[in-house]
Amino acid sequence: MPSFRTRPQTRLSHLGFPPDVGPWTYRVLPEPTLTSELARLAVAKTIGDVSCVSLQPCPNPEYQSQDRYVVHEWALPGGTWKFTAVFDGYGGEEAVDYIVDALPPMIRNGLSTAVSGAEGKLPPIVVSNVLSQSISSFDDALTNDLLDLFPGGPDAVAKLSDDEIRAVINDHATGGKNNAKVLRCMRGSTALVSLVDPQAQNLWVASLGDCQAVLGFENPLGQWEASILSTNHNGTDTSEVDRLHSEHPNEPECVLRDRVLGAIAVTRAIGDQLFKLPGVYTKRVFQNCSPGFRLSTPISDFIGRNKTPPYLSNKADVRHVNLGSSTMAKRFLIMCSDGLVDLYMYDSARTGTLQTVVKGWVDLVGRARSHTPSGNSALSLLRDALGGNDEDRVSQMLTVEMVWKWMDDTTVLVQPL
């Protein structure tokens, strides 16, 4: 008898949207096809001992993932350091692609100088400063590249004609170097980076934006514990809102509707210089650039609030953990873009505090690593976020036929320590 391949069953789903929106068709994928398709779409891989996944299932080219990640080992005097990073780009890929290429070498150079200059043990604060200063200096360089295109500052920019400005910034016919500099300033990215020293005695995590870093460890009683090492730099964080109001007194709308100037959720980022420079650069330079903005909020809605920039900070928070003095029997680091958090926070059946959510991550990864040490722990965590054992739910998230993206870009790294 001839064999026939069974076609996946199709169903309809509103995917959590109101009843008057949708429904959309999706395909129910049976196992093991479902697991295989998730691994394929998330480009599941292991780099060294770090499990990695990065997923944006929407096939529309306009919604390609702007998440990026890096896993490096750096052979420096005294041994090999481990560097891991997650960058959540937005508004376009130009900034995040440049960050991936140029920021890690800048951090490596700073670390190499610090290690070479240390006499004996390297104080943790030195490494913390390398991370913080490298990130800020990198962003400052983006700003200076733009400012150097228009000597004379804001007053000079205001006096130039649109044609004169376009001649400078839309230089595609001659290689586009100026255009690239402008686009890097028009786009943005969060940053989450970690360093582990050669002896695996020290861990540093630097965060800028709203990605998450979570240290999972087994205590002496055999219980898994979770410690959040990153900081949420966004308009819902009270300390960040207070900081912005203190830096911009008499500007009650510097944070509006939980967004900086009513427009952007994060309060710290690389790039996005329209929130860091006087408004004339947005009105005259950025708005004359080709290609232009890819913003969800019209510039006219918030540009009038730009009175005393900068409003976005490029100063990262850095945490140091002394792994050598701990009583952690087993330990690992989870790093992810905010898309992973959203998959839990927007699920009414599982919502809770961030601490509750990350504790669940650590329990899951801890069990997964105990049962299948060679498995991809990041893929296990992503599967749980998408619906876990609910094959119908996971199928919806991977195959629903929508023309715009139905979930945020989601990247997860799991690194044993």
At a glance:
This is Protein serine threonine phosphatase 2C. The protein is of the alpha+beta class and 417 residues long.
Helices and strands in order, then pairings?
Layout (H helix, E strand, L loop, with lengths): L8 E5 L10 E5 L4 H9 L3 E3 L2 E6 L11 E10 L2 E12 L3 H24 L6 H24 L5 H7 L2 H8 L7 H10 L1 E2 L1 E6 L5 E7 L3 E7 L5 E5 L9 H10 L7 E2 L2 E2 L9 E2 L7 H7 L31 E6 L8 E6 L1 H8 L8 H18 L5 H10 L4 H9 L10 E7 L1
Antiparallel strand pairs: 1-2, 3-4, 4-17, 5-6, 6-7, 6-8, 7-14, 8-9, 9-15, 10-11, 10-16, 12-13, 16-17
Helix pairs in contact: 1-12, 2-3, 2-6, 3-6, 10-11
What is the overall pLDDT average?
Answer: 94
Give the overall shape: globular
Proportion of residues in β-strands? 15-25%
Q: Helical residue percent?
A: 25-40%
Helix-and-strand structural type: alpha+beta
Counting DSSP E segments of at least 2 residues, the number of strands comes to: 17
Topology as a string of helices (H) and strands (E): EEHEEEEHHHHHEEEEEHEEEHEEHHHHE
Low-confidence stretches: none
Give the C-alpha Rg: 23 Å
Beginning-to-end CA distance, first to last residue: 54 Å
* Biggest sheet character: 7 strands, antiparallel
Number of helices: 12
